[in-house]
Amino acid sequence: MNKQEAIRKLREEAYQVKPDQEFEVRRMEPEDAWGVVRCNFAVYGEHYPIDTNYIPERLIEENRLRNLYTVVARTGNGDIIGCGALYRSSAYSPRVYEYGQAIVHPEYRHTFAVLCIQDYILNVLVSQEDIDEVFGEAVCNHLVTQKLAALADFRETGLEVGVMSAEAYPSEDFPGERVSTVLHFRSVRDRMQEVYVPRQYEQVLEYIFSGLEISRSVLPSEARAPSGSATGIKTQIFDFAQVARFNVYSLGEDFPAVLAAEEEKARSRGTEVMQMFINLGEACAGRAVDYLRDKGYFFGGFLPRWFDTDGLFMQKLVKLPNFGSIKLDSERAHKILGLIRRDIEGNPACRALLSRSCWR
Questions:
Q1: Which terminus of the chain has fewer Cβ atoms in its 10 Å neighbourhood, N or C?
Q2: Distance between CA atoms of 29 and 261, rounded to whole angstroms?
């Protein structure tokens, strides 16, 4: 079955979930997969951007491979009235999972289903599986997901400016504006390790570290990449969101040439947002930061265990969104946004970006 076939079947069956049923929360079983598809369709119609959530066979296989852990709220007669997931997304380490895809059927939005699903995932599931770190991306067009993250003891570590397309999150107040997200992390299994901090972001990272329960030995990042070394990079391009993500897991002497080639590929596919993740387990990370800032990148955040070692997130946009469209819940998130604004405004390579935006 493909997505088009699933949509056709969903329309033909016109299934209706009965309200006011009791439910339990547990891991998805293969027999629940079509119920998960039904729930997604009830909430998003055919417009959910991840095809896997419309294809039961793929849902089952991704769960079998542990690329995805789907948790469901299931009634006694088998209806799936809510679901959420941990999944491998953009982190380079296979032991760092994103938490998201949380939805509740419209008939059950008055219940505590979403909180029950979140509690099961973060307090039961993660303790049973090979997971080091969980992170989320809380949208900034409203405050609900940020508040839920705070209730679950996530801590803000960064902010992705304009990462979501305007089409995915239409707004009457800010029509056509891309939506930003707060990055927040929750440590599952921490370990002591060295983190090489670029001099440009010593104070910024000191602030972010102060709110995290992690063990780190902080060292300056001043070394050069070894002579003749090659850059290791993994690129993801999300055409529907016009976003490119570059995981630089190993910095080489050829980084400028590699970056230029990868950016050109992204631009040829209409990318508007470029996100760079640098490995802070390497002593030469600061050299990459210098080069990226010269090319118009600015600070985005800190990524615990992203490469198993920590990561630094930097970002570059074609256009900044309107500052007023970024709704933030916590004092810490406001502080991080202020640090990002300062980095943009203090970088000569970002002046053109500021001149064509409503950032101020």
A1: C
A2: 43
